[in-house]
Amino acid sequence: MTLIGMPQIRERRTPTRSGRTYHLRTFGCQMNVHDSEGIAGLLEADGMVPAPDADTADLVVFNTCCIRENADDKLYGSLGMLKRIKDARPGMLIAVGGCLAQKDREIVQDRAPWVDVVFGTHNLDRVVSLLDYAEEWGPITEILEESDGVAVIPAKREVAHRGWVTIMIGCNNSCTFCVVPSVRGAEISRRPGDIVREVRDLAADGVVEVTLLGQNVNSYGRDLDLGGRKPLFADLLRRVGAVEGIERIRYTSPHPKDFRQDVALAMAETPAVCEQLHMPLQSGSDRILAAMHRGYNAERFLAKIELAREHIPGLAMSTDVIVGFPSETEDDFQATLDVMTAARFDSAFTFIYSPRPGTAAAEMVEEFIDPGVAQDRYRRLAELQTGISLEVNQAAVGTTVVVLVDGPSKTDPAMLSGRTRTNKLVHFAGTNSAGSFVEVRIDRASPHFFVGTPV
Ligand code: SF4
Questions:
Q1: pLDDT tens for each residue of 349-392
Q2: Which domains does the chain have, with CATH numbers?
Q3: pTM of the prediction?
Q4: Residue 261 to residue 243: CA distance in whole angstroms
Q5: 179: Cβ below 6 Å to ligand 1?
Q6: Residue nearest ligand 1's atom 2 by CA
Q7: CB 175 near ligand 1, within 6 Å
Q8: Distance CA 54, CA 398 (A)
Q9: pLDDT tier, 151 (very low <50, low <70, confident <90, very high otherwise)
Q10: What are phi and psi of 155, to 5 degrees?
């Protein structure tokens, strides 16, 4: 068990659900996956053990996300299927938490009254108490408007040698397509000493790689006051980089407008910080970027990635792109292709725009793009990026990289899989244990992975 967050524990209790089973399903982003580790940690601290599937579990928890497409459909479809199981086993508990629950509040219990607990993004540390309440009194919805800090939660890590550390929650930006500010609230940063302490605890627990998490990590610390001084993200990288035992540090996500030279220098000068950077572009059109409220244009974006590459040799970069944002013309889309061609990202997460209720862009109904046109642009963008990714990866053939082993490959259990410092997936034959480092010569490259031989 590891403590996440500020150094006050909101709840201590004797386990009351020993031997009972839970099934936890996570939708969405890395932040949510990390939140789920916290929820699992709380349930296991209460004596529960994982169930192989929802059909046999005593408790099913959905940690929802409304950032991705069709979140409602997926959730209500799953809840519909669970109703039949719950009808047959009335003692089973169902809980729904996360962004969608935060946004839709009572709607979840209106549409699925068989749900026992609905909780939001600001009170996931209360999940066990809410389950107690539901068992005694019946269904409950508890949604808080804002956080009073980053909760301390005993996390259950999915991978023993990797840990995620939340450094801040919330976002002060107002991108017109995004629900995060309304469901996660304003930025709250943790104090650097607490973060470093958590990273030290992780290192003592065998973790060799940490990922620092926040919606906009580059604005870390702006809300803090440490005796008249505000801690900077660059300083935090250096402090975390000094923790003994931590070999690799990653972070996600930075906002391009807030990425500055001090961070690039800290990355370059801190050996443990990996040569990897995710820099979300979203669009290459200045007009669309303005409509998205992104706070930069294509030229400034390209200058930021040049700044990063200039300071950090061997840097691998990835990005996010939305195609078919309301009013996007063919010229706007061409501008995106142009920036992608110029930037030559190692990889990209590409999405077709879909409206999120409650966001400004969702109101631009008159300017929504024909789905067929959006689909075609998505295909053309994916084609372009796949070609670039292949070229970039092929340049690594014949080189030797250090791979942190994750374990047997998911597609071929006879092979091992692991990640380079640049976060590229490598498959190779070997018997090394998970969490060990292996030098591997790259024999073959595809757009999304390498195949190699240990040297
Ligand atoms: S920076 Fe924009 S896209 Fe990212 S979380 Fe904040 S509002 Fe959402």
A1: 999 999 988 899 999 999 999 999 999 999 999 999 999 999 99
A2: 2-142 (3.40.50.12160), 159-274 (3.30.750.210), 400-454 (2.40.50.140)
A3: 0.83
A4: 23
A5: no
A6: 175
A7: yes
A8: 46
A9: low
A10: -85, 145
